[in-house]
Amino acid sequence: MTGEQTLSQLRVGIDECDSQLVQLLAKRNALTSQIGAIKQEIGAPLHAPDRESLLIEARRQQAEEHNVNPDLVEDILRRMMREAYENQQSKLACKAPELSPVVIVGGEGAMGQLFAKQLTRSGYEIRILDRAQQADAETILTGAKLVLVSVPINALEEVVSSLPALPDDCVLVDITSVKQAPLKVLMDKHIGPVVGLHPMFGPDISHWVKQTIVVCEGRIPEACSGLLEQLKVWGCQLVEMDAKKHDQAMQIIQVMRHLTTFVYGQFLAKQCHTLEELRSCSSPIYQLELMMVGRLFAQSPELYSDIMLAQFNDVEGLLASYQETFELTLDKLKAGDKAALIDSFSEAKHYFSGSAEQFLKQSRGLLNKANDAKVLDI
């Protein structure tokens, strides 16, 4: 048998293995769909972190016993799990039926539609109150048990203040990315239960499992517990935080990040190289950076302008510190001061020391995906 014949025969074997993998995936999908139906029936959360950890650890150990890369096996498992979570979204358990009907103010916007779709999957009665329904606002809000405000930050005060009086037992909640000022607006408007939520994701998510939502207490938290339990059933990770602490964290996590990405995107747009030219010769890490920059500019300019403007006065000090750090680094580069650059690197490295290895491992997987995407696109 020639080398070409042997190669052809081996490829047939690979095709057979791949076909068996597809059949196994179909079998696994059928099982996870049944599990999803049972979870919906008994009101169990979609995400079982302990079960997930045990499963992955067991399969990693099995992979090592069979001389298979355990990281490869874990990557495949996590991708299959993500697919399973997506497949289990069609019908979800209703954890707090007492919160129905739900009125979504701004329900025709992207985030409003996202919440409406998820609440509908859990069996809640949904009513939409947006510009087109303003004339019927009082009727729509009659008997509402949960009112979720999903409007731009700069419009929230006007929208909330213009709402008709809400039932005393109605839970009033907003989902803006700033929490102190909106919570005050909500509590000035409504004497009943109030809670502030900040979903740390956009409307393009494929499922809610492992998505983080920050929860800031407003008033009568025990009356808001049903809503939080519903979020947990969907698989969300809830982070309870004081509103002031939240806004301070968001100044760094969101506002500063958006500002620096916004500036860098403008900088790239002014260069002589096209995006295609930059991508053609980029490393995986820069490919990933371009993806994240491009992601921002694929979003709504009104939304991101509102986010940056809403807290600009609060981040002026941070911006000054950022600018100073940039200028000091530039001075060291101009002076050719390698020792000073190493010292600065060491100071920052100390800040990341507790998580550096974990970040390195996690980023390696992201870089591989970025490189795969680059190869496919070019």
Shape: globular
Please give the largest β-sheet: 7 strands, mixed
CATH topology of the largest domain: Rossmann fold
Quickly count the helices: 15
Query: Rg to the nearest angstrom?
Result: 25 Å
Q: What is the percent of helical residues?
A: 55-70%
Please state the structural category.
Answer: alpha/beta
Structure report:
The protein has 15 helices and seven strands. It has three domains: 3-88, Chorismate Mutase Domain, subunit A (Up-down Bundle), CATH 1.20.59; 97-241, Rossmann fold; 246-373, 6-phosphogluconate dehydrogenase C-terminal like domain (6-phosphogluconate dehydrogenase C-terminal fold). The chain has helices spanning 3-42, 49-65, 70-87, 110-121, 137-141, 156-161, 180-189, 221-233, 243-269, 275-280, 284-297, 301-310, 312-335, 338-352, 356-377; strands spanning 102-105, 126-129, 146-149, 171-174, 194-199, 212-219, 237-240. It has a seven-stranded mixed beta sheet with strand order 2-1-3-4-5-6-7. Helix content is 63%, strand content 9%. The longest helix has 40 residues, at 3-42. It is α/β, with parallel strands linked by helices and 378 residues long. Helix 1 (3-42) packs across helix 3, helix 2 (49-65) packs antiparallel against helix 3 and helix 11 (284-297) packs across helix 15. GO terms for molecular function: chorismate mutase activity; NAD+ binding; prephenate dehydrogenase (NAD+) activity; prephenate dehydrogenase (NADP+) activity. It is found in: Cytoplasm. Pathway: Metabolic intermediate biosynthesis; prephenate biosynthesis; prephenate from chorismate: step 1/1; Amino-acid biosynthesis; L-tyrosine biosynthesis; (4-hydroxyphenyl)pyruvate from prephenate (NAD(+) route): step 1/1.
